[in-house]
């Protein structure tokens, strides 16, 4: 089995590191946070009186 040159290992490390960083950045910025003002209107409080 032929051995890999160190420059190839370095290239693979850089490639996978950049892929991981780009993937995390994309996932971080694709999330649209919900504003608290909008969520308070949509929430309805259902109170239940438990009679045991």
UniProtKB/TrEMBL annotation:
One of its GO terms (molecular function) is proton transmembrane transporter activity. Belongs to the ATPase protein 8 family. This is ATP synthase complex subunit 8. The keyword Cell inner membrane does not apply. Keywords: CF(0), Hydrogen ion transport, Ion transport, Membrane, Mitochondrion, Transmembrane, Transmembrane helix, Transport. The chain crosses the membrane at residues 7-31. The keyword Mitochondrion applies. It is found in: Mitochondrion membrane. GO terms for biological process: proton motive force-driven ATP synthesis. The gene is ATP8. It is a single-pass membrane protein. InterPro entries: ATP8_metazoa. F-type ATPases have 2 components, CF(1) - the catalytic core - and CF(0) - the membrane proton channel. It comes from Protochauliodes biconicus. GO terms for cellular component: mitochondrial membrane; proton-transporting ATP synthase complex. The lineage of its organism: Eukaryota, Metazoa, Ecdysozoa, Arthropoda, Hexapoda.
């Amino acid at each position: 089995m032929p051995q890999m040159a160190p420059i190839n290992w370095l290239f693979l490390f850089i490639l996978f590191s950049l892929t991981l960083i780009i993937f995390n950045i994309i996932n971080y910025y694709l999330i649209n946070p919900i504003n608290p003002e909008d969520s308070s209107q949509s929430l309805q409080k259902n109170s239940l009186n438990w009679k045991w």
